[in-house]
Structures are given as structure tokens and as C-alpha cells.
Amino acid sequence: KIKSSSAILFRKAFIKTMGKTAKPVFKSVDTPYMVTKNSGALLDGVVTSREGEPMVGPIIVFAHGTLSSANHNFTDELTQKLSNELGLRSYRFNFRFDKSEAEPDHRYKFSGYDDDVSDLEAVVKSLRADGYSPWCFFGHSRGSNDVLLYATKHTSEEFLNADDECKRESPSDPAYRFDANKIALVVTAPRFDMARMSTTIFTPEQLAAVEETGSCVWPTQR
Predict the structure, then answer these.
(1) CA separation (Å) from 185 to 13, 75, 82?
(2) DSSP 8-state secondary structure symbol assigned to residue 47
(3) 75-96 average pLDDT score
């Protein structure tokens, strides 16, 4: 039973950073961080943290939506403010290479939710190997479905649930009881009814190709 309200961990930070806040006292920096999967697929992203902080410790992982990227929508601004004002380290990345000339197994697919989960698994494995401790998944749109699907494929002990206690609302608080083996899930604008997605995402020509051959080339641009 994954706690749907585990976003309590993130509530104070999110409300504060998305509204009018005081001028940041700290400076945040973006450090490129690449993940190479066993298949050869390359996941590019950045770690956002306060300047001078060690590149280890608790970290939030952001998962973007369809036709989006690590810097799309509110993610870039949010990660900067979380770092500047609350000292929260984060990692945002682009899901697998999505250009049409990429190798088929490395392409970003409209139906590739299992691929997305595989990418998330590679990210978590790499971060942990380098001394980071992912404590929160923040998904947006398709990314929300990705982190929820990830949760269904892993032991429930890995995630915060209704029986877990949180003594503090932010891991930047020294008294926060951090558990490196517990991950909170935050989902924003997750997908529910997919019935109309095909007519809003695909062209008539692409839909015709799907009807005829079962698939189509889905070019995307970030």
C-alpha cells in the first residue's frame, strides 16, 4: 500500500517555491550527469545542488512527460528554487534517445512505459552507486505514470506507505529521519483516460499507418 499522500514530504517545499518567495541566499549549480544503460542507451541529465555541496546524499528524481524534456514546463525553475531556498538536491533527466534515426531498441516510444521504468531503474542504480540516495520520485504527466508503474514492479518496502512516520517535512532539516531505502512518490497531472490521446498526438497519416501495419514512426522534438 503506497501512501498516496506521501507528497506531504514535498508539500511545504512545493508550495513555498512555486509562490512568491524571498530572494535566494544560496546559489544553485547544474552538474551534467550521464547514465549509460547496459543496452547502450544514453540518458542525459543534470544534478542541481547548492554551490559547494558534496555531490552525494539525498536526491529527488524528476520524471518528465511525453513530448517534454528535463528542462520543460516548471521543472528547471522548481529544481533551482528547491536548491536555492531549501537545500534540496535533485536530478532531472531525459528519457531514452528519441530521435527517429536512433537504434530501434533505444527509441522513445508512445507505448514505451516499460522502457521508461527500465530507464528509471538505470538512473536509481547509477545514482546509488555514486553515493546518492533517491528519496523522492516527482513525476509529471506521463512521468507520473512511469513512477507509479516503477512502484508496482518493486517491493513495497522501498516506498513510503501509510504506516511510515515523518518527523519533519523536509530533509534539509537536521532532525529529519532520513531512510535511504524509502522513496516518496509525488505525481502531478497523471494520465487516466487515454481514449482521446491518439487523435491529439498522432497525425491522420500516422493513425492510418498504425491501422495498416500496427505501428508508425513517431518523430518527436525536445
Answers:
(1) 14, 16, 17
(2) E
(3) 92
| Closest residue by Cα to residue 124 from 161, 150, 155, 163 | 150
Question: 108 or 169, which is more confident?
Answer: 108
Domains with residue ranges and CATH for the chain: 8-191 (3.40.50.1820), 196-222 (no CATH)
Query: Whose CA is closest to 30, among 92, 74, 73?
Result: 92
d(CA 186, CA 163): 17
Which of these, 142, 119, 171, 172, lies nearest to 73 by C-alpha position?
Answer: 142
Pairing between strand 42-50 and 28-36? antiparallel
| Cell numbers that stand for 187 in this block | 505525481
Identify the residue whose cell numbers are 536526491.
59
* The C-alpha cell that represents 165 in the structure block: 512516520
- H helix or E strand, kind and range, residue 139: strand 132-140
Give the confidence band of 48 by pLDDT, cuts at 50, 70, 90.
Answer: very high
Tell me the whole-structure pTM to 2 decimals.
Answer: 0.75
